[in-house]
Amino acid sequence: MPDLFRHADLRATLRSITDGVASAAGFRLSAVSVFRNSDELEFLVVSGDEDAQAELGGDVTPREIVDQWLEESERWGGLCFLPHEKTLRLADHVWVGEETTVDHPHAWQPYDMLFAPLLDRDEQLQGILWVDLPLDGLRPGPDKRRSIEIYARQASEAILVAIERSRLAEQVRLAAAARRVVRDATAQLDLDRLLEATVAAAREGFGVDDARVLLDNAEEVESLDELSALARSLAHGCWARQRTLVVSPQRTAPGLLTPAEHAALLAGLEEKGDTSLLLVPLGAGTECLGRMLMFRHDRADWSDEEADAALDMGHDLGRAVLNARSFAREQHAAAYTQQLIATMAHELQNPLAAARGYASILEDVLDELGVQDADARRSLRGLERASGRLVDIVTDLLALARATEETDPTQCPPVDLVGLVGDSVEMVSVQAAPREISVTLDVPAHPLPVRGEPGDLERVASNLVGNAVKYSPDGAAVRVTLTEEPDGPAGPHVVLAVADDGIGISAADQERLFEEFFRSEAPEAVQQPGTGLGLAIVKRVVDRHRGTITVSSAPGEGSTFTVRLPRADA
Ligand code: ADP
User: Where do the Histidine kinase domain residues begin and end (predicted)?
Assistant: First the structure.
């Protein structure tokens, strides 16, 4: 329910009306109370008497009492009068001014109540306009009643219009808020979460009691019960006409809904304890993809603004559903490709090992036979080189497949990166020694734990250090450091930096560095053996460990790769 009580403009408008009523009708006090929710009447504005203002502001009356007032009051045309004697019994909910009554047979009594019920077009009670404390101290006689009634009628209309306008403004504001939430949710590619976000937005933004989103293909048409099948076909009809449908006792939709269907839907609503329903079709282009159903327990009023905003939501959601579906398809295809690659790599291992075995047997045979033929020896070396390279590719492909697995490495126990990086550096140093490349390691004296798979993390370190050595000239220096970032925006992190003074990487190459099979075409880089898979594996491992990797480099000036991983709480 829109909260009218927050609208300062509405209060100001109503106050000017009540001020006018009080002075025109000859009363010292005039007030308006409205239903904040369906069962509580609350004062919205009080003009005139200051004591009354202080006392009545925020005063709440239950609906039963209001009904009782209406029932027991005398009708003076459009006015209701509850005399002192009757009102005494309802004293808890009546304001009593500290006025001395005048000495007159028709004197106004402290508990007298005079009010005009504010009825909307559907004859629903929206609130009450009050007057109290007559200036002449008397209960109004027939002539005065007539003039008060005229003022009250004019004021009532103005009040109802003002309330209606505020209510609409509030509804539009809420509906717009709901749309914003759906727009944000549009970025959500997970279909279930998208639908969840939409339902939450509809509940909050439209103030509905219940909301549901149903997508067409999520159910078998044949298995739908009668009402759901009707709702489905209505949604399609609505989408074709680009409209929504209100189902409530007051409204019919000729052309869209037969009287029998209307009755069936109303019965369905009643069974659920709802009064009304807004049916919103979801779609994109000419295709209707499903429907959103918004229910209200005890209100049947759906403004045109709400219907328009809801239809817009139907468009936004339709697009979001298509996005989410095509994303799911792509993911499925990508997963299939990964699986295929992993299987192929796995299957290639045995024949490759056999080929390498035969090559080495062939070498032994040539030795035994004393064959010195240069062509035969060159062919053999070529065979060994080619199969060696194939082994590297298969090994990297298997590592890549592993790094893409769905398991969450951050659930693993903590491992100490200081020890792990130390081992990797030692291993690579052995290969670097013949080229007189020094690899220095700078680490703190205490452990730096991160959660993850030790094998994968070791691959990150040895790949980066290995590359630094591979792409540096003989005699160069490679520096490996491990530090701690205790107050990063995303919590404490451990930082691994691998710096070299090697050939460097151009800005264009840096953009593609982490793609599978990417190898720089720079002449100094091409000379080095490699599969172009190393950094792709590194990147995936780092991503899976919820870390980041960055590179800073310039051709001829060396490169620094920096990996940040969340520090495990020690
Ligand atoms: P490769 O097996 O080719 O080394 P990577 O994925 O490890 O594959 O690296 C991709 C490319 O990035 C390399 O081919 C090389 O051009 C470039 N590269 C990687 N590390 C460095 C580095 N430290 N210095 C210069 N270039 C590098």
Answer: 343-569
